[in-house]
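Hi P.,

Sorry for the delay on this. The queue was packed all week, but I finally got your sequence through. Input first:
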Amino acid sequence: MNRRLSMREADAGDRHGLWRLHTRSVSSLCRGAYSAREVSTWVDLLRPEAYMPVDPPRTVLVAEWEDELVGFGQLDPVRGELEALYVAPETVGHGVGSALLSALEALAWGAHARTLNLDASLNAESFYRARGYVPLHAARRVLTPEVQLVCTRMQKRGPGVLLPTGAGVGAGAPRPGAARR
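Then the structure:
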């Protein structure tokens, strides 16, 4: 797959493509990390009309290979929150997720976010760890009262953001007893 990856801001015309990609990504990539019931509940809750337009300051970036949508990510730079990052299953390991994450981080740091936070699905935690995110604590995404997805709250500090004096042993280490959301 030596095609050129391009990125752009999503628009209303991407609504159905984002929904299809999100549905395929969750159905395929989350299968081993979550039960069939959890995955089917998650997918059943996804609706095309929920994708666009987003309210400012949120940004949705799409990644494309030759006009084919292969990934997307959603960021709220004011809150320092990565709200979504999904790639087409067939592109895993080809740099799409890494390129999207780098572009979204650049937007966050450019907006003066001090940290970038996210809830990583169990299948994505190692992806984020490899890119400098540290786990803070276990979290849950409530899909329905009966179905709650276990995930990991993670954080990455922006360039030049130092740990407070007396904080953990290694740079980026979460502080013992840190407040939980």
